[in-house]
Amino acid sequence: MHEHLLQRARDIRLAIFDVDGVLTDGRLYFLTDGSEFKTFNTLDGHGIKMLINSGVRTAIISGRKTPVVERRAQNLGIQHLYQGREDKLVVLDELLAELGLSYSEVAYLGDDLPDLPVIRRVGLGMAVASADTFVREHAHGVTQARGGEGAAREFCELIMRAQGTLAAAQNAYL
After folding, report:
1. What ranges in 12-122 are assigned the alpha helix state H?
2. pTM here?
3. 132 is an annotated ligand-binding site residue
4. What is the pLDDT of residues 34-59, one digit of tens each?
C-alpha cells in the first residue's frame, strides 16, 4: 500500500463511484426489448456498505441512466445518485456545496476520460486497473483489481485502512 495514498485517504468524508467500468466490468448488455442489465460484484457491494457504516458518505455519478443502477444504489444505501450526467465536475461542485465539503475530503473511483477532471480535482482520485491508460497515468493511484472485479472493495478498504476503521469492520465477523 502506497503511503501517499493512505495519506490522501485519511480525511475522506465522501467517496464517489462511476458505474460502467468501475462497479461493472464496463460491458453493456441490451435486451431485444431495449432494456439493459448490468452485473455487479458482491465484494464491491459489501465494501461500500462497510464504508458507509464507517461514517463516509457515498455517491454515484454516471453518464448513463438506467433503473438498475437506481436499484443497486438503494440496495447498498448509497446516499447520493446522479445519473445521465456527463458533466461530472459540475455535479461534484453541486454535491460539495450541498454537503459543505471541500475537494480534499472527496475520493473518486473512475475508469475513463469523462472521470478524469474529477479524479484530478479531488483529494484521492483513483482509477481501476482496467481503466483507460491515460486515466491511469493521471490518477493518484490505480487499484490492483479491474472494474466490476473487486476494485471498489479495494478502494473502500484503502479509505477505511487509512482512517483506522477497517480492522474493526472485519473483526466484527470473527
Report:
1. 42-53, 67-76, 88-99, 116-121
2. 0.96
3. no
4. 888 899 999 999 999 999 999 999 99
